[in-house]
Amino acid sequence: MEKFFKFKEFNTNLKTETTAGATTFMTMAYIIFVNPFILSTTGMDFGAVMTATIIAAGVTTILMGLLTNYPFALASGMGLNAFFAFVVASQFGWQAALAAVFISGVVFLILAVTGAIAHIDAAVPTSLKSAVAAGIGLFIAFIGLQNAGIIVGYEATQVTLGNLTDPGPMLSLIGLLFIAVLMARKIRGAILIGILLTTIVSFIMGFQPAPTGFGDIFGPPASLSPILLQLDFRAVFAIPLFVIFSFVFVDVFDTMGTLLGTGARAGYLDKDGRLPKVNKAMLVDSIGTMGGALIGTSTVTTYIESTAGISEGGKTGFTSVVTGILFFLTLFLAPLAGLVPAEATAPALIIVGVLMVGAVMKIDFDDFTEAFPAFLTIIFMPLAYSIADGIAFGFIAFPLVKVVAGKSKEVHWLLYILAAISLVHFFGLF
Questions:
Q1: SS (H, E, C) the chain
Q2: What is the pLDDT of residues 88-115, one digit of tens each?
């Protein structure tokens, strides 16, 4: 094992790699509870989605470790699961949404194998990539605030502040405080710990009944049968192609950004700032997306939380293997997941939004030709309740303002094509 993962070459050991793997798991294990909560709003079976989420994360994370020897972990991506549930599945059904995710995985696979991803990455400016991340962050936070009952519908102004003295919003505010304090104290696994603490508070408040025995916490995993191989490829033809493109676009740049960011932290980048074996890592990501769709979960992507394990000294794929094994062990916590109320997971969405919106710092707001397209991308995602629409507005605005400002040389030729596709999307033809 030490020879396979090259412990000596990377100046590491079994203990360090194991600790790093456990650390990565703790920081991203919240997805075990959050993803089923989000996807179950579409009518998908909560327990089945939890099982699918764990299996997809476990398999792909271990595969990443074995194929690339990198300490990167994967799971159903935040933002992409919200897009799946609240945009695509709400209009076309979750079966069609799963088919769309599978198709996006196939496209991702082709891009990874052919090396086309590098060209696409070079074509899209940093400001738009950052704007997409920040916009998704606002979108997720908005959903979290709604699920918590902190923000509610109101006829006069569309939305308004909910009644914070109601048990639901109050519980969510307590959970938000828990996670915020833990994050401020830089406690590993802050989001997961916060979810569990909020769940305990819900028992104390009488918000829901507390577990009465061992069987209320531990038990066999829920069956996958309600969602396994339920992809509806016939219904997917009703989904605009731009929506599927948005799945691919967000996954590509989320993955590319995460790989480069975590790779830089681990010291893997070469002198040109490139990640060796990046195509293999992308291949695993695409396989995870396709496989995840088949068993019933949203897009699987590489997690930035992998840097937590890297910070603890993780340098090889064994870190990923440990993380994957720990995911599999949580299959037996299915009853516990049923005890976690929506008000306990809503704060996690808000906190993830906080983390993602930080991407705005990479946008040059002193340059209006960069700021305007980025702002439209960010603002339209939560207001139009659509990640795809936000992306489309950004693609249209960027080349437009650059050209009128006499900066057409800063626009890659591919962006003109993306702008044209976005225009057609808004006219409902694509």
A1: CHHHHCCCCCCCCHHHHHHHHHHHHHHHCCHHHHHHHHHHCCCCCHHHHHHHHHHHHHHHHHHHHHHHCCCCCEEECCCHHHHHHHHHHHHHCHHHHHHHHHHHHHHHHHHHHHCHHHHHHHHCCHHHHHHHHHHHHHHHHHHHHHHHCCEEEECCCEEEECCCCCHHHHHHHHHHHHHHHHHHCCCCCHHHHHHHHHHHHHHHCCCCCCCCCHHHCCECCCCCCCCCCCCCCCHHHHCCHHHHHHHHHHHHHHHHHHHHHHHHHHCCCCCCCCCCCHHHHHHHHHHHHHHHHHHCCCCEEECCCHHHHHHCCCCCHHHHHHHHHHHHHHHHEHHHHCCCCHHHHHHHHHHHHHHHHHHHHHCCCCCHHHHHHHHHHHHHHHHCCCHHHHHHHHHHHHHHHHHHCCCHHHCCHHHHHHHHHHHHHHCCCC
A2: 898 889 999 999 999 989 988 888 888 7
